[in-house]
């Protein structure tokens, strides 16, 4: 059974940082693009970032470019989202997913709340 498990969410003040992790089990994703999405209350789920299998290419939503960094550790079957300079509008449930763009698998989500 394939599982994606996010961790690292929490409550942080505006301007602060958090690092999310997504640990996969049940299969390896080292040959696939993987991604992060988020969903704020009352809004549709939106793309945040994606990363190529080697980690050499990364892609970001304009709203997070320059503040968030996606990375991965294929040996650990895990990928990460480093979030800096957080803003209240970054408040959402963050989901990891893959393989991108089909996104056959999703994590359960982790709440990120940014206070002003």
Please tell me about this protein's structure.
With 116 residues, the protein is an all-beta fold. 0% of the residues lie in helices and 51% in strands. It is built from no helices and 11 strands. It has strands spanning 3-7, 10-13, 18-25, 34-39, 46-51, 58-60, 68-73, 78-83, 92-98, 105-106, 110-115. Strands 2, 4, 5, 6, 9, 10 and 11 form a 7-stranded mixed beta sheet that branches. Strand 7 and strand 8 form a beta hairpin. The protein is globular and about 40 Å long.
Query: Helix count?
Result: 0
In helices, the fraction of residues equals under 10%
Over the alpha carbons, how many angstroms does the gyration radius reach? Answer: 13 Å
Alpha-carbon distance between the two ends: 40 Å
- Kindly name the structural category: mainly beta
Main beta sheet, described? 7 strands, mixed
What is the percentage of strand-forming residues? over 45%
List the keywords:
single chain; 116 residues; mainly beta; four-stranded antiparallel sheet
Can you describe this structure in just a few lines?
The protein is an all-beta fold and 116 residues long. The protein is 0% helix and 51% strand. The N and C termini lie far apart (40 Å).
């Amino acid at each position: 059974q394939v599982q994606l498990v996010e961790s690292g969410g929490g409550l942080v003040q505006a301007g602060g940082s958090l690092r999310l992790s997504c640990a996969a089990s049940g299969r390896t994703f080292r040959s696939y693009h993987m991604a992060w999405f988020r969903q704020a209350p009352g809004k549709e789920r939106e793309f945040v970032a994606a990363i190529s299998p080697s980690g050499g290419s990364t892609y970001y939503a304009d709203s997070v470019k320059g503040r968030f960094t996606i990375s991965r550790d294929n040996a650990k079957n895990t990928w990460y989202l480093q979030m800096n300079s957080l803003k209240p509008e970054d408040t959402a449930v963050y989901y990891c997913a893959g393989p991108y763009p089909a996104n056959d698998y999703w994590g359960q989500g982790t709440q990120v709340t940014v206070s002003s």
